[in-house]
Structure formats: structure tokens, C-alpha cells
Amino acid sequence: MKPVQKSVFMSAEQIENALREIAAGIAQRHKPLDDVVLVGIRTRGAYLSDRLIGILKETTDVQVPAGILDITLYRDDLTLIAPNPVVRKTVIPFDITGKKIILVDDVFYTGRTIRAALDEIIDFGRPSIIEVAVLIDRGSHELPIHADYTGASVEVDKDSIVEVRLGDVDGVEEVAILGKS
In the chain, how many domains are there? Predict the structure, then answer.
């Protein structure tokens, strides 16, 4: 087995700058942020959503509501990921009907995670629109889904892994690309 080679694609400062650009895009498109809610996809999407909400509060003085989705039971590969997948709590503490939902995730790859999130969010009501914000779009989409807000894009081969590491969860802040050397 070949050793795994790691390269840092984004530093902590670059992640912060990307999140600020995403937040600015959201604020510009939806000014004055009426009926906008951010819903993070567990795990890192929820942390990124919290950060975006903080940036929006700082820059617009509007407190955008937050929700968290656990898409585990909505995945189309549920039987492949683990014999006993861990299901965590989905938290949507508001009525989403008529809201502008922005789903937040760390890495956009095939589109299947977003598809599962769309399936789940619709179970909670009928939003006016649903948009997608991702820190990294790595291309190779398998479904006709796109990100409305993207921090950075990178094209890597299918055998590589784009790994977002956040200080809140991982103790280090970076986006790394892992591949066989």
C-alpha cells in the first residue's frame, strides 16, 4: 500500500477569508436577511454554519436563525457506510415554511449529501427557496446540484480526499488534500 501524501490547500486565515466571502454573498443576495435561516449539515457543516452566522451578525447586525441536519437516515448509501451507523439529532427549532434556507456543508463532492439534506429539509415544511453554501467544491458531481456560495474550488482525482479540519472539532484549522504518493 502506498503512503498517503498530504498537502495543505487552505490555511486557517484562508478559511476565515472564504467564510467572510460566503457571508458577504449571502448578505448581498438576501439583504435585509428577512426569512433567511442557515442549516448546517453535521458535522462540520454545522460548525461552519455557526461561523457564518457569527460573521453575518458582526457585519449586518442581524441574528440569522440556525438549524442542524443529520442526514444519516436519508443517505442512499446507508447500508454501505457502517453496519450500525450513528444517528445524531436534527435540530430545526423554527417553522421552515416560506423561509429562505441555506444548507451549509464543508465539502461538496458528488452531490449526494446535498440531495439527502434536501429530502430531509422538505420533511419539515415548504421553504420559499433552498440554496447551498460550501467551503470547498471539489468537482466530480454525480447529480445536477450546484453550490450557490463556494469558498474555494479544487479539482482532485477520485482517489484523493479533501479533508476540512476545524479547530472546534479537530484541534487544527486547515483544508488538506490527501492522496496516494
Answer: 1
